Amino acid sequence: QQQVKQSPQSLIVQKGGISIINCAYENTAFDYFPWYQQVPGKGPALLIAIRPDVSEKKEGRFTISFNKSAKQFSLHIMDSQPGDSATYFCAAGTGSARQLTFGSGTQLTVLP
Amino acid sequence: NAGVTQTPKFQVLKTGQSMTLQCAQDMNHNSMYWYRQDPGMGLRLIYYSASEGTTDKGEVPNGYNVSRLNKREFSLRLESAAPSQTSVYFCASKGDSAEAFFGQGTRLTVV
């Protein structure tokens, strides 16, 4: 049972373009929504995160948009760069230990 | 800053063999986790430990056991490895903030 559904599976964007990755969740108990970036040979690293009391959070070129009523959230990467090429995972967490449920991942390729 | 250290980085096992994956963190975090990563499946939680002395099952615990040896160390044991356990295993830890820090992973192949 996949509680966090992520799309698309892969994404190719030209340098300078906007990359958009979408996630949808089912469990309304989730109260923490991070995005992780993973480069080959490394573990995932936190990129940006949001809590459900806000609809948007921006850090540099990265923005999370959150729609609580639709149970959806998305990652926007503005002015995408070749260095952004990586696999991106959305996740949702709950509970005091904040165990995370991950989406299936999106492999982003930014062409120079 | 070492962060989260996993050993070994690579391992090949024969079906039925046992092994223990080691994880240690030096950030004084209370919570530690074991995930497995498979293509198209994202990361799935195997076991977690919210604090020293406690462990709980995650989404896919069958075939695995864990030990929270002390606050720093959280090991994952495969008693009788099966080809279905071929995967990349990640250990993570978390402190008071919500951010989880991941190790570099162990690539395990069971033949």
Task: Name the features.
heterodimer; A: 112 residues; mainly beta; 6-stranded mixed sheet; 5-stranded antiparallel sheet; 11 strands; 56% strand; globular; B: mainly beta; 7-stranded mixed sheet
What is the molecular shape of chain B? globular
Main sheet of chain B? 7 strands, mixed
Can you write the helix and strand succession of chain B as a string? EEEEEEEEEEE
Q: Kindly name the structural category of chain B.
A: mainly beta
How confident overall, as mean pLDDT of chain B?
94
Backbone shape of chain A: globular
Biggest interface goes to: A-B, 24 and 26 residues
What is the total tally of β strands of chain A?
11
Low-confidence stretches of chain B: none
Please tell me how large the radius of gyration of chain A is: 13 Å
Q: Show unreliable segments of chain A.
A: none
Order of helices and strands of chain A: EEEEEEEEEEE
| Radius of gyration of chain B, taken over Cα atoms and rounded to an integer in Å | 13 Å
Query: Would you tell me the structural class of the helices and strands of chain A?
Result: mainly beta
- Name the average pLDDT of chain A: 93
Report the oligomer.
heterodimer
| Helicity level of chain A | under 10%
